[in-house]
Amino acid sequence: GQQLNQSPQSMFIQEGEDVSMNCTSSSIFNTWLWYKQDPGEGPVLLIALYKAGELTSNGRLTAQFGITRKDSFLNISASIPSDVGIYFCAGRNTGNQFYFGTGTSLTVIP
Amino acid sequence: ETGVTQSPTHLIKTRGQQVTLRCSSQSGHNTVSWYQQALGQGPQFIFQYYREEENGRGNFPPRFSGLQFPNYSSELNVNALELDDSALYLCASHVTDRREEAFFGQGTRLTVV
To answer: What is the DSSP letter of B98?
Structure first.
């Protein structure tokens, strides 16, 4: 099945640092979503983006829907230990199917 | 708490057996999608059900099948289980006609031995 390319694959950062990750696709999507998943749990939605060029914030998180509709990025500012987890991007196409990225594993060192 | 519940939470089956996983969707959500997530990977789209009909399918063989009921709850059935079917199976619900996000259940961990 289709999978989006997400980078970086993993990150180790100091508490307080900012984080940036991105996601690219060969296909156009109508919606971009960013999820966080803790071990043994389902993904939890962080941010949803609906329009090309849209920039949306949710607390310390900021995400943008790329103008080409084939990419998106997520920034986390001033990271804290509870930001630890795996972050997935997901794209929703015109057929209302969701395709997930490969994931970015984030470790925050206190 | 997303309002999407899956059962069972864990399951162990033997190769060749059949399994049924269940999902109750969030109130007001008429579309259910199923995903397979192998360890260390992102969720892979299996299929989606809308108004009791399959409405999209990923790259999974026919032995993966599903049902959606009038109350929008859903089942995922897998026949002739293989070792590679061991994974976390996630159900997500969303409203097709509106710009709403998919809300995931906590998943069913299936182990095939």
So the answer is: T
How far does CA A90 lie from the centroid of its chain?
7
Asked whether the beta carbons of B109 and A40 are under 8 A apart, the reply is yes
Q: Do B107 and A33 touch (CB under 8 A)?
A: no
**Maximum C-alpha span of chain A:** 43
Question: How many Å apart are CA B93 and CA B3, to the nearest integer?
Answer: 9
- Phi (first) and psi of residue B83, to 5 degrees: -55, -35
Contact between chains at A88 and B33 (C-beta distance less than 8 A):
no
**B45–chain A nearest CA distance, Å:** 7
Selected for mutation to probe chain B from A4, A30, A36, A37 (highest B CB count within 10 Å) is A37
Tokens 């509106």 found at:
B98
A34-93 residue pLDDT tens? 999 998 788 998 999 999 999 999 999 999 999 999 999 999 999 999 999 999 999 988
For A73, the 3-state DSSP assignment is strand
How far apart, in whole angstroms, are the C-alpha atoms of residue B104 and residue B92?
4
Chain A partners within 8 Å of B109 (Cβ): 40
